[in-house]
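Subject: Sanity check before I submit

Could someone independently write out the C-alpha cells for this chain? I want to compare against mine line by line before I put it in a report. The sequence has 321 residues.
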Amino acid sequence: MPHTEKPGTEAAPNPRLRWWTELPLIVLVYACYSAGRLLVRGEVSDAVDHGLAILDIEKALLLNAEHPLNRLFTDQPWIGVPADFWYASLHYLVTPAILIWIFRSRAVRYRAARTWLMASTFIGLIGFTLLPTCPPRLLDASHGFVDTMAQFSSYGWWGGEASAPRGLGGMTNQYAAMPSLHVGWALWCGVMLWRHGGTRTAKVAGVVYPLVTTVVVMGTANHYFLDAAAGAAVMGAGLLLTPFVLRTAERLRTRLTARFAPEATASPSAPDGAGSPIVSAGCQTSAGERFPRQREQRFGPGAEPDTAPSDAGDETPAPAR
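---
Independent answer below. Compare away.
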C-alpha cells in the first residue's frame, strides 16, 4: 500500500501571488511612506544644524565631492539638465519597472525582493523622523552650493522648490535628506539586475545605475555623500531584516487563515476505536461495501443462518476453513 500522509500533516504551500493583491499592498506602503515623510518635517533650525554637522564630519574625513560636482552640473547645462531629469524621474520609473519584472519572470524571488525594498523604505522613514536634515541646496549661499533643479526648472516638469511637479513643492518634505533613498532604491535595483538579469548588459546596468545616481544626488546638491552612504547602509539593514519579516508575515497569515477559514485547516483525526467500525487492522468500510471474493448474502435481514454445524444439511460436515 503506498504511503499517504495523514490529513493536516502536509506542508502548506505558499499562496500564489496575484497582481491585484500585490498592487494595493505596494500602493499602501508607498502612501504610508509619503505621508510619514511629509508629516515629520521637524524644525528648520534643527535640520540646518544637522546639515552643517554633516559638512563638518565630511571635512574632518577629507570628503568633499559635493562642491566640485555641483559646480560642474551648474556650469555645464548639458550635464546638469539630464542629471536633474535623472534625479526627478528615474526612481519613479526604474524601481517599479524592476519590481514588475521580478514579479513576472522571477516569481520565486519576488516575495523576498519586495520585502527587502519595503523594509528598507520604512527604516529610511525612521531616519527622516529622527534626523531631519537640510540638503546642501537649501543651505545659505555662503556654503557654495547651487540648487541646479531651481536653476534649470524651465527645462523640466518640476518646480523651483523641489523635485515635485510645479505647484506641489509645498507638499513635500524638503528636509528628508538623511538617508538618501534615491541611492538606496538605486542600489536595490542594481542588485536585482546583477543577480537576475542574466546578461552582461543587465549586470553592467546593475553597476552603473546606483553609481550614477550617487553622483547625481551630490551634483544636484540634493544630498551629501554621507546621505548616500546612509542610504546604502539602510538597504543593508533592510536585507538583514527581510528573513525575520517574512517569517513574521507567514506566521500571521497562518493564524488568520486558521481563524477565519477553519475549513482550510485539517480536522483532527478520530481516536482509534471510535467513529466508524474498524475492520482489518484499521481499514474503515462503509455500509454495503464488500471485500473482493466476498459472496453475496442469500438471506434477507433477520434470517441469517445459525453458525452451528448441524445446519449444513444431511449431517454433512462443514467445509474446512
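---
OP: Matches mine. For the report I'm noting this point. The CA atoms of residues 63 and 225 lie 8 Å apart.
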